[in-house]
Model the fold of this input.
Amino acid sequence: MEIQAFGTLNYIVLFAYLIGVMLVGVYFARRQKTADDYFKAGGRIPGWAAGVSVFATTLSSITFMSIPAKAYTSDWTFLVGQYLAILILPIVFYFYIPFFRKLNLTSVYEYLERRFDIKMRLFASMSFMLFHIGRIAIITYLTALALMPFVNIDPLTIVFLIGVLCIVYTFLGGIEGVIWTDVIQGIMLSVAAVLIFVTICFHVDGGVSEVFRLSAEQDKYFPSSSFEWSWTNSTLPVLMIGFLFANLQQFTASQDVVQRYIVTDSIEETKKTLLTNAKLVACVPVFFFAIGSALYAFYSQNPQLIPENFNTGGILPFYVISQMPAGIAGLIIAAIFAASQSSISSSLNSISACYTMDIYNRFGEEKNIQQSFNTARIVTVIAGVLGVAASVYLIKSNESQLWDAFNSLIGLMGGPMTGLFMLGIFVRRANAGSALCGVIAAVVSILFVRGFTDLNFFFYGVIGTLMVVIVGFITAPFFKSKSTQELDLVTE
Done:
């Protein structure tokens, strides 16, 4: 069977979306006067919009396509990660956000200097920047590869459409433009998920009841084998532990998410940010898993519709292009672009915030408002160009096994960062010297288990976080601590 052409109407819908996103950046460009506007939106963002932005930022295009593919080929075990994100939000609100707002931070890593020293601030900030440049490249690369067979667009053109447009509207609109485009993109993602699921169910003989009956019959929800403990496989206990620490990293130590806590004008609005995100996380991801089950039911009844030797990783865009009406299919593909762009634009603005506040403004002569603002925009462009260039390199070199290897490095960078914030806020006796010992121990431990064991990469973040906290606690008496007055400002 040949894959259906994308079609003129679908292209019109897709490009109309891309132009619309660009116009949002242009609209908010007039409000960008200072670095404070560029990174904090002057506190003008309502809490619900910041919450939608957090949701859109954490849901990339790869997630949009890989979750249905995972449910189609396997089961729903990875759903547990979504709900662990909800469980940690009260901890974030009551223990972390008061510090971030009280200290009036732009870069979250400024806290680490106030609590420990400049070395910890630079370690965390540079780790974040390097990781997110790589993340931009990976998301763009994998999105281009996934869409290329279905939209008849050269992968380099897809990279251009995703990457360059992100650079332009982030450069123009700052965090305010990023958040309001995230709102559009988050709504598109949510509507697309529901629309796809409902559409598939109408095409399945027996409807929604048959979808869930067949999945239950084939043991595609939470099979008994997934409840077993394993050091190497991604079973439910491993996923619960791994996602707990991964979500802690994202919501307490990652600039792209934490930055949303400071764009509102009050802590009450920040609370709405977390509640809005929690509501979306509670409802929308379930539809992505349900889509996988619905696709399984549909193609079980219609196996002749799948091409021979088809890569099931692209099962969602394949269904969208081949089965959904013209125009609607274009809207869904636009939603996949949206998922990619929401993650990338957030990374660009956050990288810019880290460099401007943690390096440019921190060292050398004092910078004026215009210098900081100009630097922020320049860094946005440079980070975007580096990410796009890396993505082009990956396409040209035809890299494989990249996503798993890159994911395994999250623990190497994210675990120690999470541990530093946990150590700083909850361990009063900790100090700069013990924090450094903890980071060194964490990095060495993760490199060892990664290089010499088969331990599942979900444990890397756990090891990185706990090593910083434990070693930082044990070694604290060997180093000088801050005064009681200083500690009162930066510890729980």
Remarks:
- The chain has two domains: 8-399, 402-492.
- The mean pLDDT is 87.
- The radius of gyration is 23 Å.
